[in-house]
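Retro notes (design track)

What went well: tokenization of the new backbones is finally stable.
What didn't: we kept losing track of which sequence belonged to which structure.
Fix going forward: every design gets posted as structure first, then sequence, in one message. First example under the new rule, 295 residues:
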């Protein structure tokens, strides 16, 4: 298949590109800058210039290929709601180009949107006024128009070499504050997956996935946040401390919501349907290496 990949030079998207190429697929990767285009070309993928805000470029990329894997997202939390709506429009545009065909559109969402405090399966749905739900709403709308849509929900920690997500934020905070902290007793659970396992999941959804289901990319259903803080504290030689919710709000700032996130998620159905079996190291083993702490 010739596959249009957005976010093709990102942390997850670049792993997907490599996974697809190794499996014999052709890749058309979205590149916003000259540097991204050059990096993508070196992998052997074809380059498609544009961005998630250039809807016409997205329509062309989708129209020229046999399927779409959409991982691009603008990770600027100061404009989070606005960026979620940009993602809604991007998904809508690519869906328009695929309507009336059987070509798949794979959309990225997150398990952190699901109701907290209990193990969520693929059937669980986001509740409440959550801006990030825009992506799943756009996927549902595309499916209603006859587009073959699948949603891949990724956990809060997609880890591995090159990670610039939530765990590096925690490491930076621990360096700045002189302590590795957790909220309450630290028993809140973060699901996790290695980026290479996540990449293989996207390929399997592309090749085997049915229309309109949801898949969970969780290799681990839930890692206690306290365990993450403990590794960070030991590696940085700083104390590991508990914070009350009020203290955590001051310590973590805008990240306090994510630090307290308790969203265990199962991938049992995903594994059964697709034969997906994660093979890479778990979050704690991966984190407990010098790579994550190199400045």
């Amino acid at each position: 298949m010739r596959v249009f990949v957005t976010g093709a030079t990102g942390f997850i998207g670049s792993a997907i590109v490599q996974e697809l190429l190794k499996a014999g697929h052709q890749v058309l990767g979205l590149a916003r800058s000259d540097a991204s285009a050059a990096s993508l070309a070196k992998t052997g993928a074809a380059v498609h210039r544009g961005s998630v805000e250039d809807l016409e470029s997205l329509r062309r990329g989708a129209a020229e290929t046999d399927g779409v894997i959409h991982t691009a997202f603008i990770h600027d939390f100061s404009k989070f709601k606005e960026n979620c709506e940009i993602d809604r429009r991007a998904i809508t545009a690519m869906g328009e180009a695929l309507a009336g065909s059987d070509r798949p559109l794979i959309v990225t969402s997150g398990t952190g949107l699901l109701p907290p405090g209990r193990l969520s399966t693929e059937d669980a749905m986001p509740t409440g006024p959550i801006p990030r739900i825009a992506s799943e709403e756009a996927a549902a709308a595309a499916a209603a128009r006859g587009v073959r849509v699948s949603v891949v929900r990724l956990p809060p920690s997609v880890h591995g070499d090159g990670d610039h997500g939530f765990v590096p934020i925690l490491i930076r905070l621990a360096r700045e504050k002189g302590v590795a902290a957790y909220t309450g007793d630290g028993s809140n659970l973060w699901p996790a997956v290695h980026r290479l396992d996540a990449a293989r999941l996207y390929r399997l959804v592309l090749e085997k996935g049915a229309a309109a289901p949801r898949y969970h990319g969780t290799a681990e259903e839930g890692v206690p946040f306290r365990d993450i803080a403990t590794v960070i504290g030991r590696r940085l030689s700083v104390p590991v401390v508990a914070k009350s919710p009020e203290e955590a709000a001051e310590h973590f700032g805008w990240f306090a919501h994510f630090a307290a996130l308790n969203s265990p998620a199962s991938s049992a159905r995903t594994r059964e349907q697709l034969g997906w079996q994660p093979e890479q190291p778990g979050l704690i083993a991966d984190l407990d290496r010098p790579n994550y702490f190199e400045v």
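Added context from the reviewer: The chain has a mean pLDDT of 95.
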